[in-house]
From TrEMBL:
PANTHER family: TRANSCRIPTIONAL REGULATOR, MARR FAMILY, TRANSCRIPTIONAL REGULATORY PROTEIN. This is Helix-turn-helix domain-containing protein. GO terms for molecular function: DNA binding. Residues 19-118 form the HTH hxlR-type domain. InterPro entries: HTH_HxlR, WH-like_DNA-bd_sf, WH_DNA-bd_sf. Keywords: DNA-binding, Transcription, Transcription regulation.
Length: 121
């Protein structure tokens, strides 16, 4: 039996450490990340509770973890105010803002094709 050769145009995905799809897109493609980025893009700064209320089916723990990840990857900034009770605000970084036109394009595509993915149709 002949061994299948990987086409040259597919080899770019095989190098796990250098594949842009794996190493960049995975940073913001989680279940909640894009929604959080969309919420933040519509406001200059947004408090934790406002994000939570705008995405009511996300748990506080998952929201916290997702925001920390987005901050680690440089897409979101977090500002803590020395007040009692503490006030924390989140906003997109410059890098995060450069991502938004692409996410907005995907959002527009999703709205246009939503019925194709609706299981109740």
């Amino acid at each position: 039996m002949k061994k299948l050769e990987l086409k040259d145009n597919l080899k770019k995905y095989t190098c796990i450490g250098q594949c842009p799809v794996r190493n960049v897109v995975s940073r913001f493609s989680g279940k909640w990340s894009m929604l959080i980025l969309c919420v933040l893009s519509e406001n200059e700064t947004t408090r934790f509770n406002a994000i939570s209320k705008s995405i009511p089916d996300i748990s506080p723990k998952v929201l916290t973890e997702t925001l920390k990840g987005l901050e680690t990857y440089g897409l979101v900034s977090r500002k803590l105010y020395a007040e009692i009770p503490p006030r924390v605000e989140y906003s997109l970084t410059d890098l995060g803002r450069t991502l938004m036109p692409h996410i907005q394009g995907l959002t527009e595509w999703a709205l246009e094709h939503f019925d194709s993915f609706n299981p109740e149709r």
